[in-house]
User: Fold these one by one.
Assistant:
Number 1:
Amino acid sequence: MSALARREGTDRDIEAMPPLPDRAAERLEAFLGRVEGLADTLIGYPCSQDFDYSELSPFLRYSLNNVGDPFADSIYRENTFEFERDVVAFFQHHLRAPTGETWGYVTSGGTEGNLYGLYLGREIHPDGVVYYSEHTHYSVAKIVRVLGARSIMIRGRPDGEIDYDDLYETLKMRRDVPPIIMANIGTTMHGAIDNLSTIQAMLTDLAITRRYIHADAALSGMILPWVEDPQPFGFDSGIDSISVSGHKLIGSPMPSGVALALRRNVDRVARSVEYVGCMDTTIAGSRNALSPLVLWSAIERWGADGLRRRTLRAIDTAAYAVERFHEHGIRAWRHRNSVTVVFPRPDGSIINRWQMAPQRDIAHIITMPHVGRRHVDALISEISATSRPAPGGSP
Ligand SMILES: Cc1ncc(COP(=O)(O)O)c(C=O)c1O
């Protein structure tokens, strides 16, 4: 029996869901107003907001659930596996995965993808040590604790990249232990990209053959496929797994992401579960089945060309922001191919109003596709009108 039939009263022995009481409906209405008010000042976090997936609202009536492996059959058939597979295929192609050699699924976000990648790394190398830079997203230290993995934090450069000398020296001291390297393909605060070629060259130089590289490409994983001269970021750069957020560059009303990994590693940890009649390859059991629909809809609507156009415009807005900051005598900078614009930490009221994430003496805006030049102009005139910001805007 469908939820629809229940609502239409065809099954008299089943009580239909009651309507929302008036006071609750008013509360929702007021909340919607608050969200709409906040939407125009969302420029400090990497969440795109230029979407409308209302064509998917009929699916809110069903218990869709993507429990299990999207590439296997499941007894639970109210799922969106077929759309999830299309999303995974799109990411595989644009993240340069060799045909047939990777597997993936839609996650709850970048954090789950990082957990998945490091979990595989730890399973492949139970005696391994996780190396990550001090600029790595805060979730990674937690993931390492959850996995009970040994780890070493590597110094970071002021511009957000890993300190290659520190990494090299640390690897050199422990050549007998397989490294599980968490490479940042776009750090949270600076948008910095750890150089995968340099890291690979170090491992070759030290003759370290047992190793695992996971790329945290939460934001830049959907920027670099569209630019002309990307830094190394995909499977063609020798990574073993990658995590990208879906709600960041693509945009989604709920957090989501995509994790991809070399199939031969996934096969080593997969096991079959009788309860749902499928392979237990994912971190979560029950999984959000709407996120694959959302990502699929965005991919269908934009296509690769549209995503490229939209990304290049976002990069252009970031370049505009740096120029405008400089015109106002404020030191601001960004990495190549990045939409993260770093500048000296402004007044608390500005941080609050524009929903910015500060860190010590810096702050940033992230010119996601919904951020226009008018946002940049408004922010800079507010900063200029307040007292001189503290130094800290250059790497
Ligand atoms: C570099 C990086 N990695 C991981 C994450 C976590 O991603 P999510 O919030 O999708 O779990 C973020 C979030 O901002 C991030 O910037």
Number 2:
Amino acid sequence: MELPIHIDRMAAWSLQEQLAGQLAAMMLDGRLPAGARLPSTRALASDLRVSRNVVLAAYDELFAEGYIEGRQGSGTFVVEDLPAPQRARPPRRAGRPRWLEKPAPPPTHMGEQEAAGIDFRLGRPSMEPVASQVWRGLWREIANELPPDAYGPPAGYLELREAVARYVARSRGINCDPASIVITSGSLQAVNLIAQVTLQPGDCVAFEEPGYPTSRAALTMHGARIVPVPVDEDGLDVASLARLEPPSLLVYITPSHQYPTGARMSVARRLALLEWARGADSLIIEDDYDGELRFDAAPLPALASLEHSSPDNRAPGQVAYVGTFSKTLTPALRLGYIIAPPALHERLVEAKRLTDFQTAWPLQRMLTSFINNDRYMQHVRRVRRRYAEKRALLRQAFASLGDRADLQGLEAGLHAYIALAPELSACELEDAARKRGVRVSVIADYYVGAPDRNGILLGYGGLDIADIERGLEVLTGIVRDRG
Ligand SMILES: Cc1ncc(COP(=O)(O)O)c(C=O)c1O
């Protein structure tokens, strides 16, 4: 029998794999029907000009997988009970497969843009690196230890949770029990876990407008119906939130440094928000992504810290606080945490277990050592000083432009918002800057509805001083030319 087998000696697959694969395909599609006799190994080897061992090995594999059987003295046959050939199966439905009927995740593509020229866009690398000798020292310590030989606790190793608890008490005023912390792979995983354990399809989630597209998309993927709530210079407009009917199940906010406008939520607003959440039985997701990078402004308490009004109330009840090391170390590490209300904690731990069992041991171990030896706080102090220089440049560059380009949100974090006068279109400014090798983000891209602001965003953390100076010269030059 002539079989249409093609052997490619240059292919990455072995000759045996090619032969077994093609024979199996022929059996499944009916070209080699159930009960058919296969050529002898000697004859097939000669037809294909391969060694007999190749055919023997391929036949052995097909035997082992149950495709063929040997009958005493009469040769090798395709087994009788092979499933019906695919030709005889019902035709595939026209159009999209059923498993693609679910809507695709909303596109965001944040942080994956190619670097271009002097790049102030948000989502680009935006921080000062850790000093290389500190970094190497940390990893040398880990390299001297053998990893545990079993899964660790999904919520994270206790030493790290204790270190994080001490750290948030000191830097954000949050007095929590280490047992209420879950270590996550960055704050994005934290948001996903919270959504996973709280949301049912169609549940309403109030979201800052403009806001952080990545978290918004993640919540949407979990079935949230996103309701944009406006933001002003004091952060999320709680009065608008309170008018929502039915009240939203979750509220996602960035109160320390609203993303992207840079507004800091006033204490009065924070208290009003907490009161509303208690009354509405809603959960607040407090994304404190750059809360520790405060500069000249007085630190405002984390929302989660305001919940601890009595000493016996050691864990927040209405706030799921989400922290990250992405802005102080690097987003590439994927390290974050959730401080959750007690009632939610166990569910989050289970969701974490079902997602990836635990955050990788070397990362947890490294971070514990970093925080406990105070090197982390030293690093944060060092980077704050570096950012102070960069912020001074921004302030200086925009000082003389008055209302035409009003610099905002510089008191914290690593990006600033430049509100432009109505006659200066942000898109035109972005376009003119791009032609001169300077990239900026436009605030309109952070809205789901019609934008009510006209301005650009500058992420300055990762750029060096010389690039910032050159970039600002280009930008302010364009504003002046158009004035
Ligand atoms: C609002 C906001 N939240 C969180 C993050 C950090 O996310 P992750 O911790 O997942 O890296 C960012 C990073 O840009 C952000 O802008």
Number 3:
Amino acid sequence: MTNNNLYQFHGSEYRHLKNIPRKLLYKEFLNTGFILFRDFEDIESDLISFTDEFTLRYAKDTNRRETRLGNENIKNVDIGNKEIKLHSEASFAPSWPEILWFFCKKPSEKDGNTTFCDAVKLWNSLEKDTKVFFLGNPIKYVLSLPIDIKKKSKGKKKWFLEEIGASDVSLNWETSSLEMNLLRFGVTECRFTNKLSFSNHLLVDLESEPQILSRTLANNQKIPQDIMEEISEKSSKLTFTSNWKKGDLAMLDNKRFLHGRESFKEGSERDIVLVQTLKAKI
Ligand SMILES: [Fe+2]
């Protein structure tokens, strides 16, 4: 990775994940919010037993993603080869994961790196007026979240969802989806560091996120253009790329680090899988 603030554990020192001193691992994760594990042996077969150590509950991912490596908690990353701009995974949804685990089975030959950005640094870099704007103005996401409904019925039904910021929640039997408006601030407090972080879904193109039908301020107005330009410019200055090596595992605080993807050549065999810890044990 091309960022010297990240902490790396190396297989040449520890060989297997189980040999890493847990106290050190926890300390570095809490400090940096991002750990790269490189050149370990058998990381693929150890993956879920390792993530289990840090996980109280896994996220039930959208059913658009295929299950991988024989475990329902390991999924493909988003399909396609287009660029995906920076976002915090599912930051618009009631189930917002706390830790993401990216495992690189095969990097693409060229391009197709995962991009990352420390959203604590991004928040700290914003103009004071921009901070005032986001501290006082929640974002309204209009959502249609696919869900597994066993029993089929017809039409829409009002639904009770105990989620702060949720309104107009309904279950749509026709489309097997949960629909709602969700108010959520663009800035949040990190779960592990208590620092403020600009973790949200404001930069990503809505075409890459079909669950978001619209994204505005609470009063249905757009975010002012100059503010969008500032966050776009400052986030790209802070963005670094994964430079994946086969067998790499990245562990990141999803409420602190944004991620995205560079585009890559169609037909490339890039193979990266994702595990999402909804509630962490740390
Ligand atoms: Fe993502």
Number 4:
Amino acid sequence: MLDTKGYRVGIIGRPDWKTDKDFLKLGRPRLYFGVTSGSMDSMLVNYTPLKRERAKDPHVPYHSGIPDRAVLVYANRIKPLFPDSTIVLGGIEASLRRFAHYDYWENKVRRSLLLDSRADVLVYGPGEKQAQEIARRLDNGEDLLGVPGTCVVRRELRAGFSVIPSYEEVSGDSAKFCEAQRLFSNRRQLAQAHAGRYVLQFPMPEYTTADLDWIYGLPYSRHVPPGFSEFALARFSVVTHRGCIGDCSFCSLALHQGDRIVSRSEGSIIEEIRRLTRHPEFKGHIDDLGGPTANMYGMDCPAPCPEGRCLPCKKLDRSHSRLIRLMKRARAVPGVKKVFVRSGIRYDLAMESREYLRELCAHHISGLLKIAPEHVSPRVLRLMNKGRDRSAEFRRLFKELNRGRRQQLKGYYMVAHPGTSEKEACELARHLEKLEREGERPVEGVQVFTPTPMTRSTCMYRTGVDPITGEPVYVPRTFAEKKAQKWLLEKSGSGIA
Ligand code: SF4
């Protein structure tokens, strides 16, 4: 993207952080070092929810090739080597650690990554506009203060900023931690004190359909370098939109990509698919046509309100009509044999359109549709902000629409989320047992809740309080209890590995 704008860009992929060698490879950049750990937080990549090192896990050994707290490690390697260079942090790890945050792996509140890394500026959210603006300013010798979608550290608090509780306050006081949680927003100028200095957040720039069309319309090589084989499965994927209106408490997507949908134009997506068909290694399969939640394409807000609560909004177009049209056009592109939809769907929203589900099942899945009811207990679902359990209704509809076809429905469930005592865990286990007895094999995966930075659920985990209602929340914290909850589901015979 920067290259298209006339800048020269060098990439040092997965540098060896134990020595300086890789960091010296390209010399001193004229404008800046951009540091990211990739599309997931390095601690999530390197550890299981029970804090076992994935690399040492006998069941799923996985060597990520990146260090723990990769952004911090890389930035701290660069700083002494190039003390005068500008360091820009970005990616999901930086984005969600922009303010003081609870770190599950250390079980403590950590400072903003900006302070610990000594970087000059932190980009949060998708960073294309920010990266360009930072390059332009540095090229012109301008200050980096005030770039939309970034945070910086300054000694003075500036006018117009809403002050959220300080690092010192959120570290020691649960009520202050909850207060900070309630104030997080990508739309506000926010300031948080850390020992007399302020982390200043400038609101996210607006990303429009035209922006996304331009970004995804660039001529990416789709080349998967050696050692990055995990990308091969998504090599010919097509992104249709950004953002999610689901607002699940355990998910940080809204504070990264945004809580409104911005969709690409149909023309831009179809053009990208046409280009893929000309790729020498394209075999006719689009690996995924989707976004954070596949069936939110086209649900852009027609008249954005200040806070954005799209899912319950009466004005939201739930017809899926834009998506249905896109799916039909995508699979009709000459050279395309199959367009898969592998991104998750919000099943409750999908139920609003039988036509969408019919299209999806008939043409875009291969024998299996995965949904994420997460739980059945009304109390847990309320804390997750997932609405009531409608999975039985969905199951009936799925069966009806797939009569005569061999299609299966499987679900993802979460154990040990705040609010899940033994009672709620048993409720879920009994529900799954019942489905099993009725001849369903309902479970695709069970995950143990992981408290990741900046989510409401993490706030509940840290404080034992629901930050929205102020009610106390039961929190399963010990490994023994988390394992027991998982074991209950395994015992229920639902085929969980
Ligand atoms: S629907 Fe999915 S992407 Fe959206 S908030 Fe919920 S978990 Fe996150």
